[in-house]
Design brief:
The chain is an alpha+beta fold. The protein has three helices and six strands, in the order αβαβαββββ.
Amino acid sequence: MKSPYQVVKGLVITEKMSHLGPYNKYAFKVSIQANKVTIKKAVEEIYKVKVARVNTLKVKGKKKKVRWQEGKTAGWKKAIVTLKPGEKIEVS
């Protein structure tokens, strides 16, 4: 089994994700191979909270242009984790 820190790469802190705070939801950048069960276990172990549900989605890479060449940024996987009532993750 992978380490929880290999599954959950980091917390996604954006203006759009900050609107999910009152609903007890947090977004994480996770490994492409991770599934909902491993994400749930990893978040519970890292942050010492109880997870109610996990929703995942794949974020496509954006097209970028550098001088005359076109390229693309790498795609990644996002997990939106809903915590049980009374639980909270401190974002500093």
